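Journal club prep — side note

Before the paper discussion, L.F. wants everyone to see what a predicted structure for a comparable chain looks like in token form. Sequence:
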Amino acid sequence: MYPRHRRVTLPAAARRPFPARSRRLAAVAAGLALALAAGCDGAVSLAPGTGTNSAARASATLAIGAVQGDRGRSPYVGEQVRVEGVVTADFTADDGLGGVYLQDAGDGNPATSDAIFVPVAHDAPFRDLLRRGARVGVQGRVAELDGGGQVRLTALLADTVEQLGLGEVAVTELRTPPVDWERFEGMRVRIVAPLTVGSLGDLERYGEMLVSFDGRLWQPAERAAPDSDAARAIAADNARRRLVLDDGRAGDNRPLAGSIWPDGAAQLRSGSTIEAAEGILDHRHGRYRLQLDVPPTLVAQPRPPAPTVPGDLRVAAFNLENLFNGDGRGGGFPTPRGARSPAQLQAQLDKLVATIRALDPDIAALMELENDGYGPDSSVATLVDALNDGGTGDWRFVEGCDRNCRREGRGPGDDAIRVGLIYRAGRVRPQGRPAMLEGGPFGPRSRVPLAQAFAPQAGGPPLVVVANHFKSKGCNEAEGDDRDNGAGCWNALRAESARRLSEWLATDPTRSGSDLAMIVGDLNAYAQEEPLRVLARAGWRDAFALAGSSGAGNEAPYSYVYEGEAGRLDHALLSPALAGRLRGAVEWHSNADEPRSASYWSRGRTDGPWRSSDHDPLLLGFDWEPVEHPGAVAEAAAD
């Protein structure tokens, strides 16, 4: 995540210590520091100016645009100046940003901002003069405050305020993102185009929402090779279109009730839209943001129904997001990952079961099961028991275990989590023993792939399903070629995993003799990254490319949303023979678009499958007789 130091600080000359976790943004602390430095008449004692030029500028009224300048730093830093303008927003409340914004009619220069931030202390004698709509003259010293995230916030540290009456300024309307946001810093802005919700990850903590102009943002590596000119162009376009909507409050973990956000904001899905967003264009914490002071209009994206696919054999793949079940007998909580109590585990199971039942697959490949063996108290046994309502269903799991695994109660592999395969015994049956690929890149850093051949109960050739979960993109201990090259860390390891996996499958490890095989699961790689390219060069076919879409209209497929950018970490790759049998490939966007507040561990969770994981499940449909034209997969049913 981007740096979040909810703090705005003054230059050292005007700084005094304040608690690290203040109830207000450090701008408030800055205002308090000014008040303490001030005499009883509110005059501020700061570093001296630059002699007669500074005094002359203080006596003359400057346009705010001249004070702001057309560069990142004001040309008047440290000098006394006087400006006149209208207070366009008042954030001096106890939980506010610690000041007001002042804007004038403009200096005629389109490259400069016509507004400036004025910190206001609680006991400043002029505080009551600086209310929204007031026209005032302000004299003080220009400073560049630390806005966090390597951002400098130009501010006017007021010595005196003169009341001039009432006034108003024109609101700047934006229909598209500007080439340069800097020119609007501090100004009142209204967005007259719908903004697409990207992430609510910081809404309930900081009161802010990540949105974008012109629809969703996409992970650059989903559409272009990492570190390519095309990928850099996508990243630059994302940065231009990205905006944060903030609630004008400081501090964290403040309830949304009573804030500028309308009811229902915390339940919005990614892909929803925000209309009529209006407030002050601000630059803090590393990003441009609109400090809202008018409630926006929320247009919620509806939850999609469970998808269906044609075909008489269905396969699902699903990252469970750490299914850990304690000791399997109601104790052993909290666990290293996942549910923190028996009640949370039950809520997690309810969501997972609802998801799998709605998809109604014959076979499901699972990721992030606790690596605790295959006994009756194991996580996979607990899930299957829940699917079977304690014994009435026909769900079974594949036991990928050797003698050491049975003796130690874990495995295969040494990771805390593993992959798994479950199936409907009334529809398919395992053929032969499962096979596992251990060692090399599948040692201490990646999960061991699990392959099993299945034959339909109605007859027909076997299908080999390989469940996978490659190394994550986290950078802990990454060195050399595994450092981030635009694809996250450990890309080289994931590429080597893909190469070894393909070579292993060419040896027919399940001894099924079948050329109908699929690689499914969380490869922790976007579509244009090297692991997918390795598999494509080896002849594996992308099921979603064959199907033509995600099954959700014409929108490109995605299974994961990170910092507002959508992409696929979860894949289904088919052998050429199996590609001819594909009838449909869909993703169910029941998770990635959902806010975290819908998760099983949240007090505000909702019943049903929603946010059962942070990854979306995928569902494939196959004919078990070859189709005449591979293009028939385009008939896949919509969500």
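L.F.'s comment for the group: The chain has 13 helices and 30 strands. Keep this in mind when we get to the figures.
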